[in-house]
Design goal:
The chain is an alpha/beta fold. It has helices at about 60-65, 75-95, 110-115, 130-140, 150-160, 175-190, 200-205, 225-230, 265-275, 280-305, 320-330, 375-385, 385-390, 410-415; strands spanning about 15-20, 40-50, 55, 100-105, 120-125, 145, 165-170, 195-200, 220, 235-245, 250-255, 310-315, 340, 355-360, 370, 395, 400-405. Helix 6 (about 175-190) links the parallel strand 7 (about 165-170) and strand 8. The protein binds zinc ion.
Amino acid sequence: MAATCRVCDSTDLALVLDLGEQPHCNSLLTEADLARPEPVYPLRLWFCRACTTVQIDYTVPKETMFSEYLYVSGTTATLREHFRQSAEHLVAELGLQRGDLIVDIGSNDGTWLKAFQASGMRALGVEPASNIARQAEAEGVPTLNRFFNAGVAREIAATASPRLVTAAGVFFHLEELHSAAEGVAELCRRGAVFCVQAIYLREMLRETAFDNIYHEHLTYWTLRSISALFYHHGLEVFSARVVPIHGGSLELLVAPAGTRPVERSVTAMLEQEAAEGLGELATYEAFAARVQRIREGLPRLVRRYTDAGKVVYAFGAPAKGATMLNSCGIGADLLRYATERNPLKVGKFMPGSHLPIVEEGSVPDPDAYLVLPWNFLAEFLQRNRGYLEQGGAFIVPVPEPRVIDASNVERELVLAEGPVGNRGAS
Ligand SMILES: [Zn+2]
């Protein structure tokens, strides 16, 4: 049964999608782990009829998910460039000056903060994963190795007044959602603006990107639903835009209610969400039906290769890839390896499917790759044009399973680099 809404405490939740019992998407396994039973947890998506927040109900303890972490922002060129541009935009938009303090919540390896440091600003990261916090420190980004919450915010406020507080790809991870929002409110009341980036549920629906659903993502935001959360803490969104990262993300600027004029971008986005039915259960039921078609169609497409004796690997071993493979029942019987660039993942096995993760380029190219981090498709197509031109193929799972090869790579590149292209994720 559903518990209570993470935002408004209502118990009036409707089950939208049940992806079964799945392991934690980032708990990669060692060879020794393979001999032991793998912990699995329910992965179910719910819609709150009271406040419209879309969320999963089961919370894997945050210490299991985030104390050691394998996702490093700086690994992809797309993300580094995204954060550079985003910092540039914020410096101009908010008139930030040299010496101003920027606090980044869930700062990862400090990729975003480094972009502000390059403009002469001071940086402070808050990052719970000790391995990654150490790495950021070693690279010159001061980092508190903590989970951000109201207590941490008060500690920061006691000695410093940040001009800007940022959070990218983290506000949907937060188990202590209200405590974190209260911490943000505390810093905003002392003069900071809050900039939050989160996967935009509207774009996730548009792409049928259900692989964004995993245990680390507790909530899936629209502008309307995240505004309800902020409202609860005396905060107001005054600027809203969509940035082309992680398949299309919200970038919102937030301040204490009534302290800044609310831009037209906010009302326009709310109107668009209402017109598209993002506050209605039926919209999510239609999404679930499209997901079901992918869960059936993708394994069928992969089998077309394997039944003909061809070899298929997974391209990449991202968190979302675990959801995709485990939801579709695609395992080591169909895919031989997952190839990766992130050295923290190489040598391990993907959760659930148990695919061995090998270094990209260390094994001969297969007949086809199933692209799991499809949100970086443009980058991959460019990097692997030679492979495609020599007869290779990329199987892309969303919005509908399809094959990219020499015959259509040009067209796909144009599409992927279009105005909403270059879809960057986790
Ligand atoms: Zn609710």
